[in-house]
Write a structure and sequence with these properties.
There is one protein chain. The chain is mainly α. It is built from 4 helices and no strands. The N and C termini lie far apart (56 Å). The model has no long low-confidence stretch (mean pLDDT 87).
Length: 97
């Protein structure tokens, strides 16, 4: 494994630990915490075995694993921005007390 993989696994592992801590102390909603934890675990597994991502991409009909990750990241990012926008509209429209 390359040094980048070790660093990535460490960063994702630390983020996973923070997510678990935030979820158990109720600073993060349980559903959100579980979703983040699953995504971080998938990221750790992809860092450990990047060839597996390429094999999955080939099954789906995409040549490279990096392309598969990009194709999944773009709609997820758009959905995240849209969710934040809707939440900001809800908070703006609430009357102040």
């Amino acid at each position: 494994m390359s040094p980048f993989q070790w660093i990535l696994i460490g960063v994702l592992g630390a983020t996973l630990g923070g997510t678990i801590l935030a979820t158990t102390t109720r600073r993060l909603a349980p559903g959100t915490g579980v979703l983040f934890a699953i995504l971080l675990l998938v990221g750790i597994l992809a860092a450990i075995d990047p060839d597996r991502v390429t094999r999955i991409a080939n099954i789906v009909g995409i040549q490279r694993g990096a392309d598969l990750l990009l194709y999944l990241l773009v709609p997820a990012t758009i959905a995240g921005f849209l969710a934040m926008y809707v939440l900001s509209l809800i908070h703006i429209s609430e009357p102040t007390r």
